[in-house]
Every structure is written in structure tokens, then in C-alpha cells.
Amino acid sequence: MARTQPTPPEQDAAGAKTNASEKTLLVLEAALRHPRFTDVVEATGLAKATTHRILSTLVERSFVVVTPDGLYQPGPQILSLAGQALQRLDISAIAEPLVSELVDRVHCTAHVGVANGDEIVYLVRTDSDKPYQMPSRVGHAIPMHSSGIGKVVLAARGDDEIERFVARSGLPQRTERTITQLSALREELARVRERGYAFDLEENVPGIVCVAAPVRDHTGTVKYGVSISTLAVECSPEQLEAHAPAVVETAGQISAALGYTP
Question: What UniProt keywords apply to this chain's record, in alphabetical order (predicted)?
């Protein structure tokens, strides 16, 4: 009597063998990204029967729902869990290890800030190994128009929002280099959008320069930013710009940790 050969384990789309738990996670992730059954099957690389069986369980448990058109959408259970997770999200705890790695790379003080009204409030400050410290502190509020983090937040807004911001704030002069005119601010924000990062060249505090990049939340909204700061006498504009890719990379890592998918 011939022995029945064991069924070989299925492989995912990347060719890796998957167990039952991994299959469920693969199907759940694919169903949240792709509404059509055929696309879910293609994304997972699993057999149609396996995919359908797992989807049926996910629908039964309300992690996924099926529309009248037969499309898959996030169900109330996954939305409820996502909401609870977002409420517990602590960006400071998420950002601090990534910011520490950035500081080790560039040897500058790093900040993470959040938009609060028409100001930026520092949530994280990580000092470098330099024998001095920046005149900043966690909880300290700074103007948007004169700071790198503020500029990347403003650059993500529309023209009408920027006009309303200027009408409210008045663009007060912090140093002789501060942008104080709406037209000049618009030009600066256009450059920020083109580059993907912003400079503060002694515009907020005399003698201090910084480069900042936008941090996006799970919806893609820019309300956070990460920056590095140093003394102008120690860092030329060219040297500061050379640090920009590292700042952008760290901002992207924080964004991904917050659930943002480009």
C-alpha cells in the first residue's frame, strides 16, 4: 500500500515557506491593501482555496467585510483595534532611538517637534557629543516661520492656509535673517517642497543653523518634523546640506513607525 505523501508547505509571493499564522497575517495584510479577491491571491502567493478559507474566517470575525460588489474592506474589528493603537501611540518613545542614531551619525543636536496652533513644540531633544548645548528644551514653543520644523509643516499646507497663518501670526522678526513677508515665505516654502527639507539659517536664534525634514502620520499629514541643529561657525551651508539626506532618512523611519505608507 502506497504511503500518502505529506502536503508540502505553501509558499508566499516571495517564495518563503509559511505556517498557518503567517498565512493568516499575509491574507489580512493583502485584504487591507487590495479589495479584489484575485489581487489578494496574487499578493499572498497562496492557493485560492487557502486564501478563500482564511478570508472567510476574517470576515466571520469582523476583521474584514465584503461589500455588495464582492470587494473586501477593513472591518469594524480591525478599525477598532487600529483606533486603540493610535490612541496609545507615543511618538516620543518611537522617535527617540531613531533620533539617537541620527545624532551619532551627524554629531549635531536633534529635535522632534509637533505643530501646536501656530507654533512648534519640541517633543524630543537629543544632544550631541559637542561641549555645548542648544538653547532649547522639551516643551519649548518656537514660531513656525523662523524654524526648520515649522517650515516643513507649513510647506505641506495649501496657499489659503498659509495666508491665514500669516494673518494670525504676523511673521514676527526673531533675528535679522527672519522671513517677515508673505511673498518671501511663499518662495521659501516652494523651495522646501522641491527639496523635501528646510533650513533655518540663523532665522530663529542668532548663530544657530538647522536642517529639518517632515514626519508624516498614518494619514500622510505633516504635523511633526525632525531637525538637527548646530553652530553656524562650525557648519557651513554646504556642510549643513550634506546632512540633509540623513535627516530625511530618519524622518522617513519615524513616519513609517507611525504607520505612513508612501
Answer: DNA-binding, Transcription, Transcription regulation
Contacts 24+ apart (CB under 8 A), 154-161: 154/185, 154/189, 154/192, 155/189, 155/192, 155/193, 155/198, 155/214, 155/222, 156/214, 156/221, 156/222, 159/186
Domain termination residue (choose one: 80, 115, 130): 80
Q: What is the pLDDT of residues 98-137, one digit of tens each?
A: 999 999 999 999 999 999 999 999 999 999 988 888 888 8
Do residues 188 and 70 make contact, with C-beta atoms less than 8 angstroms apart? Answer: no
- Closest to 212 (Cα-Cα) out of 222, 227, 202, 233: 227
Q: Backbone dihedral region of 228: left (phi > 0), alpha (psi from -120 to 50 degrees) or beta?
A: beta
Indicate if 73 and 93 belong to the same structural domain.
Answer: no
Q: Residue 238: which domain range?
A: 88-257
- Contact call for residues 148 and 210 (beta carbons, < 8 A): yes
Do 145 and 53 sit in the same domain of this protein? no
User: How confident is the model over 16-55, as pLDDT tens digits?
Assistant: 556 888 999 999 988 888 999 999 999 999 999 999 999 9
Cell reading at 36: 479584489
pTM: 0.74
Q: Specify whether 221 is located in the same domain as 248.
A: yes
Q: Where does residue 226 rank: exposed (0-12), middle (13-18), buried (19+ CB within 10 A)?
A: buried
Burial call 182-193: b when 16+ CB within 10 Å, e when fewer: eeebeebbeebe
